[in-house]
Amino acid sequence: MSAKECDCSNGQRLGCKTYCCRLIVRMTEEESERLFPGEPYRRSLSKNMDGYCIFLDKESHACMVWDKRPSDCAAFNCNEDKKLQHVLQTGIISLVKLSEMAVKSYLPQEVWIQV
Question: Model's pTM, two decimal places?
């Protein structure tokens, strides 16, 4: 597996709790039009009340717009995200708590869990 690839099914088994689908995803005007044709420009993807992306299928934990997802989603590599390591090792999924923890603590890359 290359450094840019990740195994989402394995990540979910490890406890990522679909981490990437809770992040803020910015969109270009073209991406917004592709996902929301005829609607005003949306600068970012909307979230449901539970904080997950509106395009996350809750039963399968799969992206319902995978083939036309925004470039931020396509480029994201969870295996390079320091906050995900805190999710996998502590179970905390609040983005505020994760940010605080990631700033205050150090996890050497040798102990990072590969997804």
Answer: 0.73
